[in-house]
Amino acid sequence: MKHSIFVDGQEGTTGLKLYEYLSKIHNIEIIKIDSDKKKDPLVRKKILNEADLVFLCLPDEASRESVSMINNKQTKIIDASTAFRIDKEWIYGLPELEKSQRERIYNSKRVSVPGCHATGFILAIRPLISAGILPKNYPISCFSITGYSGGGKKLISEYENSHKEQLRSPRQYALKLNHKHLPEMQVYSGLTSPPIFTPIVANYHQGLALSVPLYPKLFNKNISPSEIQELLATYYKNEPFVRVLPYESDVFLDEGYFNIMECNKTNNVDIFVFGHKDQVVIVTRLDNLGKGASGAAIQNMNIMLGLNESSGL
Ligand SMILES: NC(=O)C1=CN([C@@H]2O[C@H](COP(=O)(O)OP(=O)(O)OC[C@H]3O[C@@H](n4cnc5c(N)ncnc54)[C@H](OP(=O)(O)O)[C@@H]3O)[C@@H](O)[C@H]2O)C=CC1
Ligand SMILES: CC(=O)N[C@@H](CCC(=O)OP(=O)(O)O)C(=O)O
User: Fold this and answer.
1) Considering 23, 31, 109, 272, which has the largest number of Cβ atoms within 10 A of its Cβ?
2) 124, 235 in Cβ contact below 8 A?
């Protein structure tokens, strides 16, 4: 039996990337909406209730509207927006979060796709908090560098069509320390308060690296950077999409410089531990359009439909 799939937001950045992945998967059929009807509530409502599974690749407000239109209790929903990520009726679509998360996703009809920066942060920090090493009230900060496709069609167009000089250099944003991923970063990492988080967008299309600086002296237990690496490697050892690189992974650098784009066009996350006994930095690398958005959405679909988790990826 083929599963019928509808992508609401099929012409956006995340929607188009989803189509690329979906075209490689066999036992599904895609329901398309005419381009000129994509914002027509009646047409959308009909299709939303016909499909076995719908992806919402829409701004938050439009996602909420789509969810309110779905009255078919069998319809499975995967939402890429920020609207439901800490909603208790939804499951956070990060299978690697902890052992039981995959099963929660499989049993759920409502799954939210994690934010791209949040994915990098949570995967770095959660295992250390779960092991009781990093105090839950640790005064944590992090920064992330991302390609401009993370900002969707509008930001892509700005970068690709404008000649503004300031777009040529990296730009910090969310400097009011109110980035929209902070709630999920706090809740799913297990911290008692959100991190100080300063993202940076730069003049390249896709690829993201998030860095978390840590002082082992402030930990609950004395632990060396290589032991942190071992702990993370053990935590993710059975995960098909998470790779923890060996400690002292300078060999993975290009003459000392980090390559942010190495996970591009994959659903992979690479985790690095750098530093020495007094100062550590954990760096996570992913494709903001892969594991940071559409790749993660497909991974969740595969789990929810009982397909091979790597189908299409
Ligand atoms: N880009 C990324 O890396 C990531 C994006 N996301 C999230 O995914 C969602 C989509 O983002 P992205 O694809 O980048 O955004 P885009 O702006 O690239 O695309 C959004 C699409 O939704 C359509 N749309 C807007 N309002 C409605 C509506 N009321 N009804 C139907 N369609 C509508 C838009 O059509 P039109 O252009 O005609 O208005 C457009 O095609 C957002 O919530 C975003 O936060 C999540 C992770 C990463
Ligand atoms: C460059 C840029 O603007 N990036 C987006 C990240 C997109 C993303 O993953 O977040 P959502 O899933 O919540 O949309 C941002 O930081 O808001």
Assistant:
1) 272
2) no
pTM: 0.95
Count the domains in the chain: 2
Of the listed 57, 116, 142, 263, which one is catalytic?
116
**Nearest residue to 90 via CA among 58, 62, 114, 124:** 114
Answer whether 103's CB lies under 8 Å from 95's CB: no
Answer for the pair 212, 270: CB distance below 8 angstroms, yes or no: no
284-309 pLDDT, tens digit per residue, is: 999 999 999 999 999 999 999 999 99
Q: Are 285 and 158 in the same domain?
A: yes
Tell me the pLDDT tens digit for each residue of 54-90. Answer: 999 999 999 999 999 999 999 999 999 999 999 999 9
Q: Which residues line ligand 1 (CB under 6 A)?
A: 9, 11-15, 38-39, 57-60, 62, 80-82, 116, 149-150, 152-153, 288-289, 292-293
Relative to the CA of 38, which ligand 1 atom is closest?
A: 31
- Give the ipTM: 0.93
Q: Which residue has the CA at smallest separation from atom 27 of ligand 1?
A: 62
Q: Are residues 196 and 231 in the same domain?
A: yes
The verdict on residue 313 lying in a domain is no
